Amino acid sequence: MGKHGKSWKVPAAEALRAKPDIEVADFDASATPGFAGDKKSGNELLVERGEHLAELQERLYAAGRSGDHRSVLLVLQGMDTAGKGGIVKHVIGAVDPQGIDHTSFGVPSEEEKKHNYLWRIRNALPRGGQIGVFDRSHYEDVLVVRVHNLVPESVWEKRYDEINRFESKLVESGTTIVKVAMFVSLEEQKERLAERLDRPDKYWKYNPADIDERKRWPDYQEAYQAVLDKTSTDVAPWYVVPCDRKWFSRLAVTELLIDALERLQLGWPPADFDVEAEKKRLAKA
Ligand code: AMP
Ligand code: MG
Fold first, then answer.
1. For residue 57, how far is the Cα from the chain centroid?
2. Could you tell me which residue ranges the Polyphosphate kinase-2-related domain spans (predicted)?
3. Quick one: fold of 2-284?
4. Which of 153, 121, 154 is nearest to 222 (CA)?
5. For residues 231 and 116, what is the distance between their CA atoms, to the nearest angstrom?
């Protein structure tokens, strides 16, 4: 067992997997489930595990280049300031960008509005060998859409089953889905929004509407609760990550990706040429 074996008392994939009885309203966003270390050891471990993640990702990419159709899809969902962008920068940033297919989903464009809500999702799915990263996702269509009544209840209530069927087909076709619900506390969100207002280099992240969304916190908690209750399936479970401590959420998502990639049991593609013969040819070339 590596160094990480000492710091994780329970493997991240086990400690963070959404339990059937999870209560979003009681969730402790400052906890570090499964992890025994502190910030310093967490950050040290992140470097080491980030290197391991990079190697696994390179194996996936190499496999894809050799015709392997399998892929991984990381779905990041969370309230503003939960740290979705930080995960992309610090966790995904540790791997080769050639193998990353990143998409962020905002308010649907005019074109997107003409189609079913899964249309833009299907268009953004990763090809074989790629890690797709969704910053927000089809879950917005049962989160913000539900909280703001953007479609009638009769429409959004059917989406949970539709999403389960969609994801189940995706898994069958060779995509491992890693769904991460990132939870920040209301207090920590206030501090992070205050920082955005204090720092000119963070104004670009600030959106006055985020303050209005804070008033709807209980509605969002209810909507997240429904998502976890209805869409955490055996083939595509949710992982629930406390995000008040950025070092922990970054380490946690790194471990979840490592777990997903290790389950693919990726080797290196064998040579499709005669290695010894090529060495001889090269020596003479
Ligand atoms: P940000 O991620 O901070 O750039 O914000 C993107 C915004 O787009 C958020 O306020 C989301 O709630 C919103 N958004 C994403 N998907 C949808 C959707 N399907 N319908 C309505 N709003 C959405
Ligand atoms: Mg925002």
1. 15
2. 39-263
3. Rossmann fold (3.40.50)
4. 153
5. 19
pLDDT, tens digit, for every residue of 17-71? 999 999 999 999 999 999 999 999 999 999 999 999 999 999 999 999 999 999 9
Q: Which atom of ligand 1 is nearest the CA belonging to 141? A: 19
For the full predicted model, state whether its pTM sits above 0.90.
Answer: yes
Asked if 100 contacts 130 with a C-beta cutoff of 8 angstroms, the reply is yes
Domain parsing of the chain, residue ranges: 2-284
Could you give phi then psi for residue 242, rounded to 5 degrees?
A: -70, 130
Q: How far away, in angstroms, is 141 Cα from ligand 1 center?
A: 9
| Alpha carbon of 101 to ligand 2 centroid (Å) | 21
Q: Name every protein residue with a CB atom under 6 angstroms from any ligand 1 atom.
A: 80, 105-108, 136, 140-141, 144-145, 150
pLDDT 10s digits, 105-130: 999 999 999 999 999 999 999 999 99
**Are the C-beta atoms of 192 and 86 separated by less than 8 Å?**
no
Residue nearest to atom 11 of ligand 1 (CA): 106
Looking from the CA of residue 144, the nearest atom of ligand 1 is 12
Ligand 1 atom with the smallest distance to the CA of 138 is 19
Of 140, 143, 159, the one to substitute when testing ligand 1's pocket (max ligand atoms within 8 A of C-beta) is 140
| Cα–Cα dist 3/186, whole Å | 34
User: What does the pLDDT look like over 216-243, one tens digit per residue?
Assistant: 999 999 999 999 999 999 999 999 999 9
Give residues whose Cβ lies within 5 Å of ion ligand 2: 80, 207
Tokens 């999702």 belong to which residue?
Answer: 121
Place of tokens 């990763």: 126
